Amino acid sequence: MNPFDKFGISEKTINAIIKVGDYGANIHGDFKWKNHSILTHTTHSLDHGLDHIEGSIFDEDSHLYNLAHMALRSIFALDALINDYEKELTNGKEG
Predict the structure, then answer these.
(1) Could you give the CA distance from residue 9 to residue 30 in angstroms, rounded to a whole number?
(2) How far apart are CA 9 and CA 2, in angstroms?
(3) C-beta separation of 17 from 62 below 8 A
(4) Domain ranges of the chain
(5) How many other CB atoms sit within 10 Å of the CB of residue 58?
(6) Which of 43, 48, 61, 72 has a CA between 20 and 30 Å from the CA of residue 37?
């Protein structure tokens, strides 16, 4: 089941984002993205967005959609932000 069905987002779109994640994991290793800051993910997200605006539909290294890179980097940044914020609320305690 596609959790984005309720927004009308196609499975092809979700798969494009997953391909970017797989590409990164194959190069850098699983979950290495968690070692980067919110700022790093946000900056890379914006770089891919600017590349798209400038006419590059595909990333020159991965040959995958720049907007898929942008989306995944934004998700990584949001995940880090939410987790950091929740740690602050609980004074670093889990759960």
Answers:
(1) 26
(2) 9
(3) no
(4) 36-89
(5) 15
(6) 61
Tokens representing 74 are 């934004």
pLDDT score recorded for residue 5: 84
Q: Indicate the pLDDT class of residue 94, thresholds 50, 70 and 90.
A: low
Give the pTM: 0.86
Please, are residues 67 and 49 in contact by the beta-carbon 8 Å criterion?
Answer: yes
Q: Evaluate whether 18 touches 2 at the Cβ level (below 8 Å).
A: no
Q: What is the token pair recorded at 24?
A: 């990164």
CA distance 27 to 19: 12
Query: Which pairs from 36-40 meet CB under 8 Å and 24+ separation?
Result: 36/76, 37/80, 38/77, 38/80, 38/81, 38/84
pLDDT tens column, 24-45: 999 988 888 888 999 999 999 9
